Amino acid sequence: MRRFHDSAQAAHAPVQELHNGAFTAYAETPARAEAILRAIGGAEQPADRGESPILAVHTPAYITALKTIPALWRAAGRPGEAIPYAFPVVGRRPLALSRVDALLGAHSFDATTPITPETWGAAYANAQTALAATHAVLDGERAAFALCRPPGHHAGADYFGGYCHLNVAAIAAQAARDTGVDRVAILDIDYHHGNGTQDIFWTRGDVFYASVHADPATDYPFFWGHADECGAGAGEGATLNLPLPHGTRAEAFRAAQARALDAITRFAPGLLVVSFGADTWEGDPISHFALTTGDYPVLARDIAARGWPTAIVMEGGYAVDALGANVAAFLSGF
User: Fold this and answer.
1) Residue 315 falls within a domain, yes or no?
2) What's the structural domain count of the chain?
3) CB contact set of 213 (below 8 Å; sequence gap of 6+)
4) How many CB atoms lie within 10 A of CB 101?
5) In what order do the strands lie in the sheet with 207-214?
6) CATH of the domain at 18
7) Does residue 309 lie in a domain region?
8) Which positions ≥6 away from 264 have C-beta within 8 Å?
9) Where are the alpha helices (DSSP H) in the chain?
10) Using the 8-state DSSP alphabet, how is residue 280 labeled?
């Protein structure tokens, strides 16, 4: 299996995040990618396909905000990293905003995702990594892996959050559509629901989104991912959410994944994008499932058995010491 990664992704390295009411060390560190690279034996440098595939998913105003917020933050005399604190929960409408605090709140939904001067460059490299794996599959590879870091599935068309800035799974899926693949499916098996991915394709019937994740009644991102959310308009029925309780083990997770795969089979995609998160592992510091390293090849084999060309993009997983082994185990199933 071809594997892709860009070392520029390591430049995004915030010091702290706001978590549970206090500042704590940032969990989504460059060490995550380093651990995975060691375990999988390295990766290819992705080609640069420019901003067009990114702008096919994200709004120009949002991309401009990601690029300019760090300079505006410093111009306002602020130390450290840019972190939002005010959000337009209701009455959200287009406004010509110039104050950096307003821009941060308008384009985010939490305070766990700082913006640094290096964020845009890392996020851009991240998107190119996802595109490289996707195009490798479009060119005939059975499967390819994009070592994306930071993750992406919490980012919407015009907002960041959950450590995510650009939605790499959505960018991959849209790139496949733009090259002529009629129907694309996304299988999200990160511990947390991919609210951004769901939002992006909510009203579309050409991209099917299925997610197996922790119940948002108890877990982040709380406001998305409930079982009754199924899409709207042309996208009604093209979203499937399968929330699971704390303590979920392999048997229950595998059964839920099988339900998602059966739904994707009925959708009949020409390409599958897998948003893979290893934060479902039993020792992950911010999650509450109980999968073991030995469970990941089984889950991957179940996906591979369906026979779809598959681009795998890395999402979460924060137990750095075990992360490489868990990712390598999953990829071995393909």
Assistant:
1) yes
2) 1
3) 188, 189, 190, 191, 192, 193, 194, 219, 225, 241, 242, 243, 244
4) 17
5) 2-4, 143-146, 310-314, 271-276, 184-189, 207-214, 239-244
6) 3.40.800.20
7) yes
8) 185, 187, 208, 210, 272, 306, 308
9) 30-40, 52-55, 60-75, 100-106, 119-138, 168-178, 195-201, 250-267, 295-304, 320-332
10) G
User: If you average pLDDT over residues 260-289, what whole number do you get?
Assistant: 98
* Chain position carrying tokens 């989104």: 209
Q: How far is CA 117 from the centre of its chain?
A: 21
Q: What positions carry a catalytic annotation?
A: 154
Gap between the Cα atoms of 167 and 62, Å rounded: 12
5-63 residue pLDDT tens: 999 999 999 999 988 778 899 999 999 999 999 999 999 999 999 999 999 999 999 99
pLDDT digits (tens, 9 = 90+) for 233-272: 999 999 999 999 999 999 999 999 999 999 999 999 999 9
Complete DSSP assignment for 134-181: HHHHHTT-SEEEE--SS--TT-BTTBBBTTBSS-HHHHHHHHHHHTT-
Domain housing 36: 2-58+118-332
Strand runs (DSSP E) across 204-265, as ranges? 207-214, 239-244
Determine if the pTM surpasses 0.85.
Answer: yes
Q: Is the preceding omega at residue 221 within 30 degrees of 0, hence cis?
A: yes
Residue type, 192: H
Give domain status of residue 70, yes or no: no
DSSP state of 82: B
| Residue 165 within any structural domain of the chain | yes
Only one residue has tokens 């794996």, namely: 133
Give the three-class secondary structure for 276.
strand
